Amino acid sequence: MGASHLPIKNLLRRPGRTAALVLLTAFLALSVFGGSVVVRSLQSGLDSLQARLGADIIVLPGSARSKVDFQELILQGTAGAFYMSADSLDRVKEVDGVALAAPQTFLASLKADCCAVKVQVIGIDPEADFTVRPWIGQSYARELGDMDLAVGCRVTANVGESLKIYDQNCHVVAKLAETGTGLDTAVYCDMATMEKLLAAAEKKGVTHKLTSDDADVISAVYVKVADGFDPEAVAAKINAHVRKAAAVRSRSLFTGASDSLEGASRTVALLAGAVWVLAFVILMIAFAMMIAERRREFAVLLLLGTSRGGLSRLILAETALCSLVGGLLGVGVAATAVFPFTALIESKLKLPYLTPDAGTVAALAIGTVAATVLVGTLASAWAAWRLSRTDPGVTLREGA
Amino acid sequence: MLKAENVSMRYFRKTGEANHFYAVREASLGLNAGEVAVLTGRSGSGKTTLLHMLSGLLTPTSGTVTLDGADLYGLKDGALSRLRNQRLSVIPQGRSAVDTLTVLENVLLPAQLAGKPGDRAAAERWLNTLGILALADARTGELSGGELRRMAIARALFQDAEVLLADEPTGDLDDANTALALSVLQSAAKERGKAVLIVSHDSEASRYADALYRMDGGTLERVE
Ligand SMILES: Nc1ncnc2c1ncn2[C@@H]1O[C@H](COP(=O)(O)OP(=O)(O)OP(=O)(O)O)[C@@H](O)[C@H]1O
Ligand SMILES: [Mg+2]
User: Fold this and answer.
1) pLDDT higher than threshold 90 for residue B28
2) Which of B55, B97, B113 sits opposite A1 (nearest CB)?
3) Are residues A309 and A336 in the same domain?
4) Which terminus has fewer CB within 10 Å in chain A: N or C?
């Protein structure tokens, strides 16, 4: 026995009370949804960083700055220029336990007439490369040809356009998928193109030569360790065998990032959890108070022939409706607050930050709304249950 | 029709030596169709407690209440609530309005709780009889005590149940409205065959009684 319109009437005709409960649940949904989107973004940022650096060891020039420069280049997209002799690549390959070794050469373009944009140019060897090509392959099926560029998603150039770098005309053939790292502002070319660009840069007075003789230069070697070898030991062997180079575990390069990432996502998760618990308690108190205030009204419904079960359903329907509206509102507000500020969050955190795809976001949103409704309903279930245990004759006496 | 046999209600409260007392002790009474029973007694003597037990709202400590032979407190939740909706109507002491609804919606509420739209014209007729038709669309929160009481009477009559239990139905009413309310309740018994119980302090009420009861310290006694 029941009247299905009654919960809606009760909610609409007490706008103040309803608004308070809706706002409370909205706050809960907002913090949980916003928090989980940020945590997810940080995690996928780190995942994509690790995929892009899918090397066990990275060999960099032995200079003091090169490690820091490399980190900044990867994380923040700061231009970096550090070089070692191309011979180092051959020396690295000689080391026992090195399965794959792929060179990369870096060149920063200038903010000047000769260059269309100021970007980090990264030359790869398509033959040897094992980290960048799979990524380029996602958006470009062919090999990079002479003077072809694959550009990061945040470079302002589109496929089909040409891009002038040190007065050399390059063609943009691919735009890469977002990584959430500094690599999104870099452009990639093959080694032959890189040599031409290096030569052109030199004409503009940008030097990268190590010595006066014309030795080729590279900036980094990405190493994959063979199965059964300890990366730590291999790195130590490279350090001993290759002069003027420093081999580092790629993991150790970014422990700082992943530590602060873990710290950040733990903080956010903890905050979201604390807000959740707090909101649950507050909701429980709010619903219990709302029900206590209306005990007499509920007793009258029982008196007029509502069953105890029907009354519980009425209360649960009201709170479920309230939390549904609140949940949707909170997720909506969080969505409009989190996504436009992605860039700001990213620059504040100084960490790779990759917004999850629409499907994941939708799943998080639906999950949050469902959890909000569940929590709201649970919070009132106890009060409703208690009310339904009491004889209406007793309740009717209260606050007459 | 409605019959109470030896019903008692014990409450826990420190009274002298004992830690409990009987608000109603071994009370028996029967209500018959077409008759008005009036119950008087001093404040705190247990009248409301008895009325709640008669109307299926308060489980007695002992004794039985039957409606046409069926034990009210042996019924399941659904059956008992259906019975309260359709066969027993109660005018409770104190406020009994749902404040989010209008006066008319409050009167129609018993029908709507049964899943029916309710006969609007009938509801308005009862509001008119009790002189509050003009308030039909007012929210009950704005009403005076006497207006609310007449709304509750209109609602109980609209329910059109066989048994009508009224707890101080004239409590907030002036003399003219007291006479109106009592005569409306009487004609429910006389013209429409309802079994009516009126609980009242008002000596006025006993003039309408076919059976007169008095309650004293939880003990019920039939006076005439
Ligand atoms: N839940 C309860 N617990 C303890 N005592 C109660 C409870 N409910 C009622 N009482 C007591 O039972 C006694 C009878 O109360 P009841 O309301 O039936 O009296 P009444 O005759 O209707 O009084 P009035 O004329 O003032 O309405 C009172 O002393 C009251 O305090
Ligand atoms: Mg009373």
Assistant:
1) yes
2) B113
3) yes
4) C
- Tokens 């009354």, residue located: A311
Domain holding A328, by residue range, is 3-48+257-398
Examine the domain organization and report whether A210 and A266 are in the same domain. Answer: no
Sign of the CA dihedral running B130, B136, B142, B148? positive
What one-character DSSP code corresponds to residue A170?
E
To the nearest 5 percent, what fractions of chain B are helix, strand and coil?
40, 30, 30
Given CA atoms A69, A73, A74, A75 in this order, what sign does their dihedral have?
positive
Q: Is there a contact between B100 and A393 if contact means CB atoms under 8 Å apart?
A: no
- For residues A190 and A61, membership in a common domain is answered with yes
Q: Which residues pair with A222 in a beta bridge?
A: A58, A102
Strands (DSSP E) found in chain B: 2-15, 18-31, 36-41, 62-67, 70-71, 88-91, 163-167, 195-199, 211-216, 219-222
Ligand 1 centre to CA of B11 (Å) is: 9
CB atoms A2 and B113 under 8 Å: yes
Between B199 and A356, the more confident residue is B199
Note whether B207 and B217 are within 8 A (CB). no
Ligand 1, atom nearest to B49 Cα: 18
A304, A309, A393: residue with CB nearest B109: A304
Per run of 10 residues, the mean pLDDT along chain A (length 400 residues) is 68 86 88 82 76 82 80 78 88 92 89 78 90 85 90 88 89 88 88 90 76 73 90 92 87 67 75 79 83 87 90 90 93 84 70 78 91 87 84 80
pTM: 0.72
Q: What is the CATH number of the domain that holds B37?
A: 3.40.50.300
Query: What does the pLDDT read at residue B63?
Result: 95
Residues of B in contact with A309 (CB under 8 A): 77-78
Residue B48 at interface with chain A, using a CB cutoff of 8 Å: yes
* Interface predicted TM-score (ipTM): 0.93
What is the least distance, in Å, from the CA of A334 to any CA of chain B?
33
Q: What's the domain count of chain A? A: 2
Comparing alpha-carbon positions, the chain B residue that sits nearest to A11 is: B100
Work out whether the CA dihedral A164, A167, A168, A169 comes out positive or negative.
positive
Most informative mutation of B8, B9, B11 for ligand 1 (most atoms within 8 A of CB): B11
- Residue at a domain's end among A249, A280, A313: A249
Task: Among B40, B45, B165, B214, say which to mutate for ligand 1: greatest number of ligand atoms within 8 Å of CB.
Answer: B45
Strand A217-218, strand A84-85: pairing: antiparallel
**Domain identity same for A193 and A159:** yes
